[in-house]
Every structure is written in structure tokens, then in C-alpha cells.
Amino acid sequence: MNLRKESEKRLLVVLLCLILVVAWFKNGSEVKSEVESSEKVEDQKTTESGLESEFRSEQYGLDPVDPANFTVKSRPKIPCMGDCITVQGLLKDWPEAKPKGAYYVLIPSMKRMKFVLRIFRQIRSNLLGLYPVIVLCMTSTCPKSFPRDSANGTDRLFYQRVQQEAPSFLRRPIPRNTSCNKFEQMYHREMNRFQSLRIYDEPILSQFEYLLRLNDVSEIPRPVSFDIFKFTKTHNITYGYRGIEFEKKVCTRGLWEASRDYLLKNDIDPQFFSQWPPRRSFYNNFEISKSSLWLSQEYKALLTYFDRLGGIFYHRWGDGAMRTIAVSMFVPRSQVHHFGNVPYRHGEYLPEVSPGFDKVEGSDYVEDFLDPNLDVE
Ligand SMILES: *[C@@H]1O[C@H](CO)[C@@H](O)[C@H](O)[C@H]1NC(C)=O
Ligand SMILES: *[C@@H]1O[C@H](CO)[C@@H](O)[C@H](O)[C@H]1NC(C)=O
Ligand SMILES: *[C@@H]1O[C@H](CO)[C@@H](O)[C@H](O)[C@H]1NC(C)=O
Ligand SMILES: *[C@@H]1O[C@H](CO)[C@@H](O)[C@H](O)[C@H]1NC(C)=O
Ligand SMILES: *[C@@H]1O[C@H](CO)[C@@H](O)[C@H](O)[C@H]1NC(C)=O
């Protein structure tokens, strides 16, 4: 009898424990699935029902901006001074048949000049056409001018110090670091903002018809057999890129959703935005473009909208993602070209042969996009 009671007791204890464990697990998974489902709601609202859903910027930690009612202020003209005047002179005597093209690099300080000189030497030995190389320096440490020396090549660069301005319209406090990049400094976000909007107002750049953007750690390690600017002009290319990247969700929080809202409220019929998968971006440290795209009213309006939402500072929206959205809205697919045959390297981050770079998995559309639609003659 006693024995039976003992075993019954044990069974009861085991059962109780089991119930507790199950309850605890269930609670955990409920909490987890709550988090997941709220994320899903954010996704669903924007990806599936997309254009029909109401976009509320606060939900994404952004400032409220009416996409159909904000003003794009025209900026006071930036005077052309220093090397800008030299460049102006060059363009006056520019050969008729040669596209008005230039390379440009934006740096945060003169410490980066040694890298600029490296890419400068590579441009001169590996790219055809002798187009000007323009260096823009953006922080308060940048000198107005600097000693030039033919011994190290600094005398053959065109240099311009550019101004940054703090955004005065943001309503939320700007976090020192974002979930996108915890170790990032504020000047990265300032450069991002400058690269996406303000840079094209610089008269040293706006005089050119085509711009090839590089950054200080870019490398063109081997010769290219054709003149990139001539190719771009001959084939009526508006936007040329070297690869496609995947952006982390936290780095583009609300950006694609805000873009859909913008299209809807402004009744814009986009070029290939609707087919393009969110969070894929043209890698833009090698980027060739027709400057008229960036100078257009439609581009300025869209980027001003992004700027007002505050995502550049709150979440570190990158100018790559913002430009990709603009290109997919305004540029016909046939005028976008993948320069897969240009050797390119970006320090350690992007070795020259990088399968993840030219081959983006998970989207047939993007894969198709990478097929060169034009042959180099
Ligand atoms: C269930 O989870 C919530 C949130 O984590 C916690 O506050 C609560 O105490 C848990 N309940 C049980 C019975 O474990
Ligand atoms: C547009 O915005 C201005 C100022 O923010 C406001 O006064 C005006 O009522 C708005 N117009 C519409 C149609 O919402
Ligand atoms: C180039 O030469 C100048 C003058 O000698 C010098 O001040 C400058 O630091 C040099 N720049 C680089 C990047 O080596
Ligand atoms: C954000 O930056 C501050 C100061 O640079 C640093 O102390 C802090 O640890 C950073 N936060 C995170 C989450 O890394
Ligand atoms: C070239 O591109 C422009 C837009 O940049 C377009 O208006 C024009 O029709 C295109 N020309 C040809 C021949 O495709």
C-alpha cells in the first residue's frame, strides 16, 4: 500500500514539473512569436498590401512628413572658386567628341590623401581618356588649399573643400550611434547626406555631364580596354554600377515603406521600383552616372523627402539605398548598365573576385539585372 502511495506521489511531482516546464516553454514561445508577429505586421503592411496601406512615419521612428506637401528649397548658388575656376577653363576648351566626364572622390580629411593618390595613379595607368580627378574634402579639418607637389602627384588633382550643414529640421534627438552601425561616427552620416543631395550643387562637379564616383579605398587594379565615359555616352547610359549589395533591415528602417507612400501620394508610375526587391542596393563606391539625373527636380524632391524624414541620422539610411530607389523610380531599365567587366576592388571589404557581389542570390529579378545588356565593342 505504502509503496503504491509513494509511486503515486512521485508521479504527481513529475507531472507537475512537466506542466510547469510546458507552461514555461509555451510562455517563451508566445513572447517570441509576439515579437515576430509584430515584425511581420510591419513587413506585411508594407510589402504585401504595399500601396494600399497607410504609412505612418512615427511607426518607423521617423519624423512626420507629408510626401505630397513639402517644399524643395532652392539653395543659394555656391560660388566657383579655386580649382573650380581651373576646371571651368578646361571645359571651355574641351574636345567636341570627348564626353564631359570626371572622376570624383569624397574624403573626410587630408589623412586620406595617400589613398586618393593610389587610386589616382591607378586611374591614370588603367583607365583610358585622361579625365580630371576631383577630390572633395568635407570636414572642418579640411584646408582651403594645400601645398601641391609634382613629386607625389598632388599637383595634378583638382581639390575643393566642401561645406557640411547640420539638418535644422529634425524633431527627434539624433542618436550617437545607430542599430545599423554601433561604432559609426556622426561624420559618416553627414557624408551620406552630403553624397545624396548636396554634392551635385558643387559647381566643380555640376559642370560635367558624366561623373564616375570612387572612394578612397577603391582600386582599379588592372587596365580597362575601353573608355568608360565614351561607352556610357554612346550607349545612352544614365546609371552604371559594378555590383549589388544587401542592406540590413535596421539600416533601411522605414525607407522602402516611405518610398511606396511617396509614389502613391504623388501618383508616380515608377520605372522598375515595383519589381526591385527591397533592401538590395547598387553598390556605389564605383558608380558612373549622368549628372542630369541628380540635378533633376524629381530626384531632388524625393531626396528632400527622405532627408526630412530623418532616417539618415536616426537609422543611418545609406545614400546607396536612397539612390537605388531613385534610379528604380526614374531611370528606364534600358539606361541602367552593369559594368561587370571593369576590374574593381574595395580594400579588404571587397576583393576583386567576389562571388557574393556580382551574383546576388534570392532574387531572379536582380540576377537578371546583372546580365550585361550591352556588349563592349
Ligand atoms: C511569462 O513571460 C513573461 C514575459 O517574459 C513574464 O513576465 C512572466 O513572468 C512569465 N510567466 C511565467 C508563468 O513564466
Ligand atoms: C501643406 O503644408 C502647409 C505647411 O506645412 C500647410 O499650411 C498646408 O495646409 C498644406 N496643404 C495641404 C493641402 O495639406
Ligand atoms: C605631397 O607633397 C607635399 C609637399 O611636399 C606634402 O605636403 C604632402 O604631404 C604630400 N602628400 C602626400 C599624400 O604624400
Ligand atoms: C555608442 O557610442 C558611445 C560613445 O561613443 C559608446 O560609449 C556606446 O557604447 C555606444 N553604444 C553601443 C550600443 O555600442
Ligand atoms: C537617351 O536617354 C535620354 C534620357 O537620359 C532619353 O530622353 C533619350 O530618349 C534616350 N535616347 C535614346 C536614343 O535612347
UniProtKB/TrEMBL annotation:
Record lineage: Eukaryota, Metazoa, Spiralia, Lophotrochozoa, Annelida
Pfam families, alphabetized: Glyco_transf_15
GO MF, one example: alpha-1,2-mannosyltransferase activity
Cited Gene3D superfamilies: Spore Coat Polysaccharide Biosynthesis Protein SpsA, Chain A
Keywords, in A-Z order: Signal, Transferase
Organism: Capitella teleta (Polychaete worm)
Family, similarity comment: Belongs to the glycosyltransferase 15 family.
Listed SUPFAM superfamilies: Nucleotide-diphospho-sugar transferases
Superkingdom field: Eukaryota
Keyword Signal: yes
GO cellular component, one term: membrane
Annotated InterPro entries: Glyco_trans_15, Nucleotide-diphossugar_trans
Signal peptide: 1-23
Protein name (database record): Uncharacterized protein
GO biological process: cell wall mannoprotein biosynthetic process; protein N-linked glycosylation; protein O-linked glycosylation
